[in-house]
Design brief:
By secondary structure, this protein is mainly alpha-helical. It is 39% helix and 10% strand.
């Protein structure tokens, strides 16, 4: 179990972050419960990232008693740590925890500090969701015959209130621990995950409507649509607009969703495999403090003579008063065994030249490695000027390490300041980040902007918005351009159907709009043309016949003849 939690690395703020999990498991019925507050779902998601996939229980204080204080705060679910993962206060976390306990999903066991029972330490959280899933599985097995889904009043039950047919969904563990994403964001993410396939992460049945997502989350339409736009900006979600056939009116229906989180999990797993293979096939075995074969975590290294040691990024900690080594921030270890005693690892070796076993021991020399900033890249001053114009920091962007690293990594990959401007427009201005900073939804604008500049929407590093840098060809590895091509084909199809329909409807419309002559109701009875003998005139007239029944010309001719 401990092996799963030793994947420590440094975050944007330079602190240790536990990244041992790629995804967490979330109860599907709770994800569709609109009466459950989004903060409760965010707390459940955050606590799941501190628990094992199989055991569903967090670490005990004794398991990490010999580790440094910084590593303990990264591995143990302290209330402040979990609240930071939610992006809310500790009081909000306490209310959410009490709600989870009332729903019989969570059990909380208080713990004390090792060696001092009078001091309270991080609680031990045990998730009881697997027991619920087992009971639901037994219930489905006992009643295999499907029954009509009807309510007490005999009416069909809405889809969001039915049993989803699955017990749990998988959600990204890093999003579960990201305090910059609001509980509303995580609630909508969990609701969408209940409608997609657990493996290919695509909609396999009728896609949910916005009203159904509102019913699953208890949020308003504006809140749901804002979250959907943010998920698309984060590269986590693809949406495709759907329309009815032309014969059915061509109206718009529910959009289809495609979650891209599984691609992130596969990329992380491939990166871990590459590191493990590289460490196994080359390098040298590290002997910490001239003792036995150990890693910097104090755990025996895996078998094989080629296991290389990577120097830890963090050499010491201000809270590490006992000068104990920190866990390796670059790769996972094979266990959580305590570090061996120093006396057992630093025994003096006999000196052959003196003929005696007694020898003078010296303290091993500690090598200090100083890290320097990355080298400047061409046209970086243009991007730094764009970042400074946003006013996210009181210091210039070139002096802020996360921003400096993100800008230089962006330009080093072959991109230009125009690409940086496009990312800022899409991820900062269109996402209304300044308004969200004022409302407190985003509390770390520096890290948020660094994430926008360094985000990747595709597995290929040379892909930018679906185009390959340099060649300009469409990327076949990501689904961004594929979705755009589908939308373009749908738009062209609609335009063709509209033109064909217009060609059919326009002649009929013109025929309806052409003025028709009024029907004839009487004829001129004057004798002969212009009233001069030879039979009646017979010119047609409309409306009520005048007295006498003569056309205006015949009447005028008759008046002139009488005047003579």
């Amino acid at each position: 179990m401990t092996t799963f939690f030793t994947g420590l690395s440094t975050g944007p703020d330079g602190c240790l972050v536990c990244e041992g999990l790629d995804y967490v498991e979330f109860d599907a019925r709770l994800a569709r419960d609109g009466d459950c507050a989004p903060t409760t779902k965010a707390a459940y998601m955050a606590l799941s990232s501190f628990a094992g996939i199989e055991e569903r229980i967090t670490l005990t204080t004794e398991a990490v008693a010999t580790w440094s204080a910084e590593a303990r705060y990264a591995l143990l679910p302290y209330r402040k740590t979990v609240a930071a993962c939610m992006g809310r206060s500790v009081k909000t976390l306490d209310r959410a925890t009490a709600d989870l306990v009332d729903r019989q999903i969570l059990a909380v066991h208080p713990q004390t500090a090792p060696g001092n029972e009078a001091v309270a330490d991080a609680n031990l959280y045990q998730l009881l969701d697997r027991e619920r899933w087992a009971q639901q599985l037994l219930q489905r097995a006992a009643a295999p015959t499907p029954t009509p889904v009807l309510g007490p009043d005999g009416r069909p039950v809405p889809r969001v209130q039915r049993a989803p047919g699955i017990d749990y969904v998988r959600l990204d563990a890093r999003i579960a621990r990201t305090g910059e994403r609001s509980p509303n964001y995580k609630s909508v993410y969990a609701a969408i995950a209940t409608f997609v396939n657990i493996h290919n992460r695509a909609i396999t049945d009728r896609p949910p409507t916005v009203k159904e997502l509102m019913a699953c989350t208890g949020l308003g339409r504006t809140a749901v649509t804002d979250v959907l736009a943010q998920m698309r900006a984060d590269g986590l979600l693809l949406m495709q607009d759907n329309f009815l056939p032309a014969q059915d009116g061509g109206g718009r229906v529910a959009s289809s969703y495609f979650l891209l989180d599984a691609r992130l999990w596969r990329a992380r797993a491939a990166a871990r495999d590459d590191r493990e293979i590289a460490a196994f096939t080359g390098g040298w075995r590290h002997q910490a403090d001239m003792g036995g074969d150990t890693t910097r975590t104090g755990v025996a290294s895996p078998g094989g003579h080629g296991w290389g040691h990577h120097t830890d990024i963090i050499k010491s900690s201000s809270e590490n008063s006992r000068s104990e080594p920190l866990p390796d921030a670059r790769r996972a270890t094979t266990g959580g065994l305590p570090r061996a005693a120093r006396s057992a690892r630093s025994r003096p070796k006999p000196n052959p030249s003196s003929g005696t076993a007694a020898t003078k021991t010296t303290k091993p020399h500690t090598k200090t490695i100083r890290t320097t900033a990355s080298k400047p890249v061409p046209r970086e001053e243009e991007v730094f000027a764009m970042v400074d114009a946003l006013g996210v920091s009181k210091h210039p962007a070139i002096k802020v390490p996360p921003l400096r690293r993100a800008v230089r990594d962006l330009l080093s990959a072959g991109r230009t300041p125009e690409h940086a401007l496009a990312r800022i427009n899409a991820g900062w201005w269109r996402a209304r980040v300044p308004e969200r900073i004022k409302t407190g939804e985003i509390r770390g604008p520096v890290g948020y902007l660094a994430t926008i500049l360094s985000s990747r929407e595709c597995e290929r590093p040379d892909c930018e918005r679906g185009l390959i840098l340099g060649s300009g060809e469409e990327c076949r590895a990501c689904g961004l351009r594929a979705a755009e091509r589908q939308a373009r084909r749908a738009q062209e199809y609609l335009e063709q159907e509209t033109i064909a329909l217009d060609q059919v409807v326009r002649p009929a419309r013109q025929r309806r709009t052409t003025p028709q002559p009024a029907p004839t109701t009487w004829r001129c009875q004057a004798p002969g043309p212009d009233g001069l003998g030879g039979g009646p005139c017979g010119r047609p007239g409309t409306g009520t016949a005048p007295e006498p029944a003569m056309c205006p010309d015949c009447l005028e001719s008759l008046r002139q003849a009488l005047a003579r």
